[in-house]
Automatic annotation (TrEMBL):
InterPro entries: Lysozyme-like_dom_sf, Transglyc_AS, Transglycosylase_SLT_dom_1. Belongs to the transglycosylase Slt family. Residues 102-203 form the Transglycosylase SLT domain. This is Transglycosylase SLT domain-containing protein. Gene3D superfamilies: 1.10.530.10. It comes from Paenibacillus glycinis.
């Protein structure tokens, strides 16, 4: 059965609602419960699995029940739901297939696990070859102009050049940090100079000294490794 991700996300959100009210108190939301005591989640799930009753607009139009999801507790659940959307199971279905040949070619040339390249691209640009950050990083692997020039990249928006250059840079960092992926990824994000000044050379160093790096870099390393797990699945 083909599952509409909007409906399934909303069903999962509803599943969390019963234990929260508008004040964060621990009781059941009347708007999310049926008259017989069954939860709206159970009702919607049963009808959806049956193909929809045709009488409940919540199943025919996901927007019709979106108002329910704004009820108490959703602000507190937002970080959890954001993480749910980025789970590894969803990552492997991203745009990586469009660039598989280029990724495999670069991975073989520089001796890097292709899933790591895919994870970096996923985290850096979500596979958008036209991506450009406010700092000026460009393309799939978000190369700064100076870095791109040093890598022989003349057009960072060209997928072939960007993947080639980004993988070359990643290979250099993995070699510099003795194959320690966490240290190399931190340097990819924050720059090797900053990582060196923090005293980080290995994964153990990263774990012990990560507070010397920006929060963005710490999160970046975690996101890439999580994404790689998805591509390995």
């Amino acid at each position: 059965m083909s599952i509409d991700p909007r409906i399934m996300k909303s069903l999962l959100q509803l599943q969390f609602l019963p234990s929260l009210d508008l004040n964060g108190n621990d009781n059941v939301l009347s708007a999310a419960s049926g008259t017989d005591g069954s939860s709206m989640f159970d009702s919607l799930l049963q009808q959806y699995m049956a193909g929809g009753s045709g009488n409940d607009p919540a199943l025919d139009d996901p927007a019709a029940y979106s108002g329910l999801l704004s009820l108490g507790g959703m602000n507190a659940l937002a970080p959890m739901l954001g993480q749910m959307e980025a789970q590894p199971a969803d990552i492997a279905g991203s745009g990586s297939a469009d660039y598989d040949a280029l990724i495999q070619q670069a991975a073989a040339k520089y001796g890097i696990d292709p899933t790591l390249i895919k994870a970096v691209i996923h985290t850096e640009s979500s596979y958008n070859p036209s991506a450009e950050s406010s700092a000026g990083a460009k393309g799939l692997m978000q190369l700064m102009d100076g870095t791109a020039r040093s890598l022989g990249v003349t057009d960072s928006f060209d997928p072939q050049q960007n993947i080639e250059g980004g993988t070359k840079f990643l290979a250099y960092l993995l070699d510099k940090y003795g194959g320690n992926e966490q240290a190399a990824l931190a340097a990819y994000n924050a720059g090797p100079g900053r990582v060196d000044r923090a005293g980080i050379q290995t994964n153990d160093d990263f774990q012990a000294l990560m507070d010397r790096l920006p929060e963005e870099t710490r999160q970046y390393v975690s996101k890439v490794l999580n994404a790689q797990t998805g591509f390995l699945a």
